[in-house]
What does this fold into?
Amino acid sequence: MQRSIAYKNSLSDLLWIALFGIYIALSSIYLIFPPMLAVIGFFYYKALRRYDLFSVIVASIMLLMFEAEKGYWFASSIVYFTLICQYVMPKLEQTVQSQMGIKAIFVLFSYFGFSFFLGMANSVLILPLPSMDWHVIFYMAIEFALIAIFG
It folds into this structure.
């Protein structure tokens, strides 16, 4: 009996990258689609905790696609989520006992913390500040629900 040599997890992850590319393009056109920053950041966080290199690469590619579509500077979200995952989340997990609470705080860090991080970096580099609109609250609610259900 012959086995298939294709690694199914990597093929499905590559399919997710292609679907995310289409989705992120649609989210810039239709404002009802959230940009999935918190969901991809949470996927990156889980991959770092499991020491899964391929999943970290997949999440990094998705974060780079997000940055390219939104016009943020290169690898800013990867740097931000790496700092959050290495320094903030371990202390947060020691303090907060609820998994839902940790997920909610992660969604808050994903949007408000990332915009604060970009604002600080842009002020140092003398670049214009990133824009935030009122849709962020709507996006946070949708992405928290997705992370709570599937995370």
About this structure: The chain has one domain: 8-150. The two ends are 37 Å apart (CA to CA).
